[in-house]
Amino acid sequence: MVARLLHAITAAALAEALHEVDADPTTRTAMVLLAEAELPPTGELEPVLRDSPVDVFGGVFPRVISDSDLLDSGGVVVGLPTSAEVAVVEGISGDPDRFERDLDAALIGVDPRGRTVFTFVDATAAHIDALLSALFEHVGPLGTYLGGGAGSLSFEPMPCLFTRDGFHQDAALIAVVDLQATVGVAHGWHAVGPPIAVTAASGRRIDALNHRPAVEVYEELITEHAGDGGAHELFDIASSYPLGILQLDGELVVRDPVAQDGDALLCVGEVPTGAFVQLMHGDPDSLLAAAELAAAGPAAAASTRGLGVVFDCISRVLYLGAAFEQELTVADVGAPRVGAATIGEVCNPGDRYLELYNKTVVAARLEGRPADA
Q1: For 243-276, what is each residue's pLDDT tens digit?
Q2: Listing from the earlier edge strand, what are the strands of the sheet with 171-177?
Q3: I want to staple 306 with a disulfide (CB 3.0 to 4.6 A). Which of 54, 318, 349, 367 is the partner?
Q4: Which sequence spans correspond to the domains of the chain?
Q5: Considering the entire predicted model, what is its pTM?
Q6: Could you tell me where the beta strands, DSSP code E, fall in 67-123?
Q7: Beta bridge partners of residue 310, listed in sequence order
Q8: In 3D, which of 286, 356, 337 has the Cα closest to residue 316?
């Protein structure tokens, strides 16, 4: 598998990189990961995608990972040694009842067994969790899912997913490739508060916790744990205090409150009414330990023929600051390594259900089947 670095995103640079990966006789498909900064108008890039010498899929993310570098601008073009069966589900902020029908039509005849299912979603769209549930119902646990939320760190909606047909917004992109993946996922956050009932919520918005305004309860929980730290502006300290949705098996799925709307909390990812959440906390040491843990299994599976992939939450980048360089060092899944700082992460670790995670690192090693050697 070959990877080409884009120092800047221009139509000419993208076209050149696509031709370079196509020149490798093993390449069948190109996965393209672009950073949002200095992205030209999509109309300039769409003719390049349409005329690509190789099938292409990808997305725009807040940052892109290329080996040991975190790129604010530019991107990577990766040549994969397999064709991809690509489906785009449009309008995922609309009626979620149609998702299964759309996926049935888009992925008809696709066999996921032993394959990797790249799953990129527009992070600003509604009903992402419903889309992932429908995808898991359709494809099942026999494939390995990898991906995350695409778009801008500003949370301003934008066309952020693309195929040869052009750019897409308010959509999900699913690309099934005939590669085997060894995956690890970890976050490093731990519960520091009691279970709290979500008594009013809709989509990404939490209106009430224990029948009280959500922001009020959240701030009280942080102040109780942080002491003087609670005197800071709420969202100056909230980056180290996500919420965890309590699952039936006792695991916690992290949700990142990123803003408030009046008395409501706005999160990355949906929080259902009736769920129980706990305040969580972490520090750089616990996050770095988690990144190392996530990479341990994939690193052990590394070979010279494979590809390392890391999807790491942009909020971890912002929280760790300069220490994120250490996270990239310990999340070593072998070279070459590509990935993105995503707005939410998609994975089904082991035999667990497909989830949208927050503040989490997903590390993987992709290998061709033995017959590809």
Answers
A1: 999 887 667 889 989 888 999 999 888 899 999 9
A2: 84-90, 171-177, 116-122, 144-150, 345-347, 355-357
A3: 367
A4: 2-186+286-372, 190-281
A5: 0.91
A6: 69-71, 75-80, 84-90, 116-122
A7: 339, 363
A8: 286
